[in-house]
């Protein structure tokens, strides 16, 4: 049994690593291109003999996060300038040495954290202050080349991710969404089957898997944000704006639905352990909910209005309402209530306004 479980874990880790590689390989390509181009610009075009920081800054812009790269570029450059300013002033006042370096870095990071908080600005301010404190006596005139390199690296990094090698937004989102939403729908189907068979162990395993897979939904949100940044700034991807905007809004509500679904599965386990009666309409409602997740994904990718997903969500609410009017226990009624909350999340993910979503859920729960 132990070797079998270890084998399953290794296979799962391998599949997970392969999925991450497919998603983030474009980042490695972009970073390599940006590093090479920024080095050429800094050294060959601008004639800066010490061009090390240009590729470092370019890679920092690309690798820091998939989204918000424009903001991070500004933070990086401002951090360099802040580190230079603080470092120069304190070197003049304190001189150089071990304790002076510690004080200079402490004050540079304190100022940066006060201005922005943790992030690229604070990191670059601290790193620049170190160089100013330790290298200025041996390498005077470091300030201007490092500032220029920061600008070159940031600009080249943005140029690569937005013009030279922008990610294909829909393909990237589709690849991650296929995994995340299929997993979501599959676990809802598994929880419906566990409830129908009164299998407590199966319900607990579903909950364990959902806890372990939360990163999949987080990755979807991250990739959607990065794709939206590309279609906002990259001319070659502008035509994808509407589709990505809908996906971003949907991803936010899907993340909330997933979290609420874990509470639902937890309550299913409680109902089964307490041997409460389970009306057949209740597992059917949860199964319809899982199918609605699948339909929503297909309709979004097809560029269609998610009418089918909305109808399936409301069908799940109606069937849960029927279950509530039959013999049902305390935990069963909580499952019905949670399913209505999740249905509201899913309707919001399809683009239904908040007030309208609540009205539709109430009507469906009443059997209309």
Keyphrases for this structure?
transmembrane helix, Integral membrane bound transporter domain-containing protein, mainly alpha, Memb_transporter_dom, transmembrane, single chain, Methane Monooxygenase Hydroxylase, Chain G, domain 1, 368 residues
Summarize this entry quickly:
It is built from 14 helices and no strands. The chain has 368 residues and is mostly helical.
What is the CATH top level name of the largest domain? Mainly Alpha
Q: Mind telling me the C-alpha Rg? A: 27 Å
How much helix, percentage-wise, in residues?
over 70%
Please give the alpha-carbon distance between the first and last residues.
Answer: 51 Å
| Named CATH architecture of the largest domain | Up-down Bundle
Number of strands: 0
CATH superfamily of the largest domain: Phosphate transport system protein phou homolog 2, domain 2
SSE string: HHHHHHHHHHHHHH
Uncertain segments of ≥5 residues (pLDDT<50)?
none
The share of residues in extended strands comes to under 5%
What characterizes the major β-sheet?
A: none
Number of helices: 14
Mean pLDDT: 78
How many structural domains can be distinguished in the coordinates?
A: 2
Name the shape in a single word: elongated
Helix vs. strand class:
mainly alpha
CATH topology assignment of the largest domain: Methane Monooxygenase Hydroxylase, Chain G, domain 1
């Amino acid at each position: 049994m132990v070797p079998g479980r270890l084998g399953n874990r290794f296979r799962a880790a391998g599949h997970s690593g392969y999925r991450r590689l497919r998603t983030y390989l474009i980042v490695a390509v972009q970073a390599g291109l940006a590093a090479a181009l920024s080095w050429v610009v800094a050294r060959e075009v601008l004639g800066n003999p010490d061009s090390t920081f240009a590729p470092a800054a370019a890679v920092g812009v690309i690798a820091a996060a998939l989204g918000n790269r424009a903001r991070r570029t500004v933070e990086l450059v401002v951090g360099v300038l802040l580190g230079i300013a603080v470092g120069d002033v304190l070197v003049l006042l304190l001189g150089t040495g071990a304790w002076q370096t510690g004080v200079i870095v402490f004050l540079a990071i304190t100022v940066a954290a006060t201005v922005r908080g943790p992030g690229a600005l604070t990191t670059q301010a601290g790193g620049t202050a170190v160089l100013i404190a330790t290298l200025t006596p041996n390498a005077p005139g470091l300030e201007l080349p490092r500032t220029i390199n920061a600008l070159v690296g940031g600009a080249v990094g943005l140029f690569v991710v937005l013009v030279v090698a922008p990610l294909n937004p829909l393909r990237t989102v589709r690849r991650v969404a296929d995994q995340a939403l299929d997993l979501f729908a599959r676990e809802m189907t598994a929880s419906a089957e566990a409830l129908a068979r009164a299998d407590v162990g199966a319900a607990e395993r579903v909950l364990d898997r959902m806890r372990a897979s939360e990163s999949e939904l987080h990755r979807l949100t991250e990739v959607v944000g990065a794709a939206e940044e590309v279609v906002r700034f990259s001319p070659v991807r502008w035509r994808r704006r509407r589709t990505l905007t809908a996906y971003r809004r949907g991803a936010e509500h899907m993340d909330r639905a997933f979290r609420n679904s874990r509470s639902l599965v937890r309550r299913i386990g409680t109902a089964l352990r307490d041997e409460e009666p389970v009306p057949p309409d209740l597992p059917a409602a949860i199964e319809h909910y899982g199918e609605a997740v699948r339909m929503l994904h297909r309709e979004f990718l097809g560029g269609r209005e998610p009418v089918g997903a909305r109808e399936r969500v409301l069908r799940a609410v109606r069937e849960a309402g029927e279950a509530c009017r039959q013999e049902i226990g305390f935990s069963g009624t909580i499952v019905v209530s949670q399913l209505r909350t999740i249905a509201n999340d899913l309707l919001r993910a399809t683009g239904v306004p908040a007030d309208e979503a609540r009205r539709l859920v109430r009507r469906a729960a009443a059997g209309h």
